Amino acid sequence: MTEPVKRKLVCDTCGQEVDQVRRDVVDADYNAITKPPLWNCERCYEQKRACRREGGRDGAGGGSP
Ligand SMILES: [Zn+2]
């Protein structure tokens, strides 16, 4: 059996097939230990980075004290 060497990678965020994926950077906010590694395409990767820069946090239930 000879399978094609070129394997398409899939972005975990948008599910698009890309030639190259980047692993989500390990941040202090990101619990890489408990969560499986996320692979993102360039687009999603940049988007996440931009989102982080803006200070947007997902999953953080912040309320007034
Ligand atoms: Zn993507």
Present the secondary structure layout.
Blueprint (H helix, E strand, L loop, with lengths): L8 E2 L6 E2 L3 E2 L15 E2 L1 H13 L11
Antiparallel strand pairs: 1-2, 3-4
Q: Could you characterize the architecture of this molecule?
A:
The chain is of the alpha+beta class and 65 residues long. It has one domain. The chain has one helix and four strands. A hairpin with a 6-residue loop joins β1 and β2. The chain is elongated. The relative contact order is 0.20. The model has no long low-confidence stretch (mean pLDDT 74). The structure holds zinc ion.
What is shown here, in short?
With 65 residues, this protein is of the alpha+beta class.
Name the descriptors.
single chain, 65 residues, alpha+beta, two-stranded antiparallel ribbon, 12% strand, binds zinc ion
- Mean pLDDT rating: 74
Q: Indicate the radius of gyration in whole angstroms.
A: 15 Å
Helical percentage? 10-25%
What is the count of β-strands?
Answer: 4
Q: Which structural category fits the helices and strands?
A: alpha+beta
The tally of domains stands at 1
Strand content: 5-15%
Taking the sheet with the most strands, its summary is: 2 strands, antiparallel
End-to-end gap: 63 Å
